[in-house]
Every structure is written in C-alpha cells, then in structure tokens.
Amino acid sequence: MTAVQRLRVSFSRGEAAKYVSHLDLARLWERALRRARLPVAYSAGFTPHARLAFAAPLAVGITASAELVDVYLSELVPPARALAALAEQLPPGLAIGDVAEVDLVEPALQAGVRAADYVLTFAEDLPELAAVVANILASEEVPVERRREGKVVKIFDLRPFVLALAVLPAEGPARLAARLRLDTAGGARPDELLAALGLPEKPVRVHRAGLVLAKAREEFGP
Fold first, then answer.
1. Residue 62: phi, psi to the nearest 5?
2. What residues contact 27, with CB distance under 8 A and at least 6 apart?
3. What is the model's pTM?
4. How far apart are alpha carbons 88 and 201 in whole angstroms?
5. How many CB atoms lie within 10 A of CB 179?
C-alpha cells in the first residue's frame, strides 16, 4: 500500500509503561492506530506490517518524555485529527506530545539520530559526583565492558560517546545530565556510563529527556 503522508509523533513513556519492551511497544502502537481508524500504509510481501519507524529503541526500565515515531499513511489526515484520535487509544503510561507532517522524501528517522539526552536521579546527595564527572571529562580513554545477557561481549572506549556530562543543581538527591552519542555507527547506554562512573549508588530513575537529530539545535541541559 503506497504511503502518501508521513506523520512524526512525539510521545512520552511514563512509569506505568517503562517495562514495555521495544517489540511490545511497536505492537501497542499498531493496535492504537487500528483502533483510531487511521489509514496506515502497510509494507508489501507475504507478511505485511504497518509502516512505523521509531527513532531509537528505548531500553526496558527507562522513562522518556520526547520519543519519536514516524507513521506512514495511505490517505491524507490532518495532524491535529491524528493526534486527537491516537490520544484516546494509547494505554496508561504512553501519551502523545505532538504530531507534525514530515516530507516523505526526507531521510529515515533513525538515520537522523545523533545523540540522546538522559537525566539520572539518585536517592540521595552524592558529594563525590562532581569529582567523578570531572575525571571522566578529563580522561582521554574510558574503557568499559559491553555486556549482553550478563556476558561480556567486548571492551570499548566510552569516552568518544560522552558528548556532555554535568551535575544538575539540586537541593537533595543528586541529578546527572548526560548526552550520549547515538547514531548509525554506534552508541552508548546509560548503564555503561554508570559502570564508568563507579558510583556506590545506582540511580532510582533513568529518564531519556530527548533525542538530538541532525540539523537540530545543539543545546544541552535538562
């Protein structure tokens, strides 16, 4: 089915949906689109599937406030109408922020991702955090283990993937902002950054605050 329109949807994933896997998230969106009665375009072949393209998979256990998914439609639909229809069909923990039309000939959404911004919140103040961050930023190399299913896959240098790192002003629990490179050539994960920091406490919340796209503004912060 030929696509005639491409809508870019910004959405959040809250606490109620943070343990939904990427595959299940895609299924949730397909169901929501069907229930919203939007004319979704489907791929060709023996097993056609709805044409959805997510910017970047989000790991289980992480909340987010500005995720992106491109939805391809076989008929023209005003973005405002699509937003209203979808907002009524999403389950608890998922919420739409915005819907905008994108040119069909623009590069794939995933190809445009350059980095991801995270905010890590800890249970208490960590006086040593500023010194640990300064040490990471001053290092030429930061070797860490990349693990998969509990096994070490390889050792790699995390430093080129840490584009920015800052302790956020806060009274009480410590908060850390990080911009990690994430593109078609590779990326780094928050758990790998935490391994490099070597802190005695794990964060009580890891939140992906946004995605940096090619040609997007390059501000850094919460």
1. -110, 130
2. none
3. 0.90
4. 39
5. 23
Amino acid at 31: R
Candidates 196, 165, 220, 209; CA nearest to 68 is 209
Length of the chain: 222
128 lies in a domain?
yes
d(CA 209, CA 154): 28
Q: Are residues 69 and 84 in the same domain?
A: yes
Give pLDDT tens digits for 172-185: 899 999 999 998 87
77 and 157 in a single domain? The answer is: no
Q: Judging by DSSP bridges, how do beta strands 63-73 and 205-213 pair with one another?
A: parallel
Of 106, 132, 147, the last residue of a domain is 106
For the stretch 62-112, pLDDT in tens is 999 999 999 999 999 999 999 999 999 999 999 999 999 999 999 999 999
Say which CATH number the domain at 190 has. Answer: 3.30.70
